[in-house]
Amino acid sequence: MTYKEAIEQEINVRDLYVLTELLEKGDIPISSLQMKNITTAALTGIADRLSMRRLIVRKRSKQDRRSILLSLTEKGRSLFPDKIEEEEKIELTE
User: What's the rounded Cα separation, in Å, for the pair 30 and 17?
Assistant: First the structure.
């Protein structure tokens, strides 16, 4: 995703950070997204906003039902077509 595309999609830097972390790492708990100068409450707000836009979903961890994982939706993944194509190429060559 380019900077221009992020602006057009109304995605700010913090949102983009969360989306790219999910794209690179898969399903992760919100607590693992700690950033400098961003509180847990702010991360919850980011997750709420991205969830309302249907870019991510929250789901319970199978290992620990108390833990909530964040996961990209297809709509969220579609924001990164170049990254998805790159992953598909890697899978085909393995």
Answer: 12
Residue 36 in tokens = 């400098």
Bridge partners of residue 70, in order along the sequence? 28, 58
Give the residue with greater pLDDT, 90 vs 5.
5
Nearest to 48 by CA among 32, 40, 4: 40
20 pLDDT above the threshold of 70:
yes
Domains and CATH numbers, the chain: 3-93 (1.10.10.10)
Q: CA separation (Å) from 85 to 33, 34, 77, 81, 90?
A: 25, 28, 11, 6, 9
Q: For tokens 């950070």, what's the residue?
A: 17
pLDDT digits (tens, 9 = 90+) for 33-92: 877 677 888 889 999 999 999 999 999 888 888 888 999 999 999 888 775 444 444 343
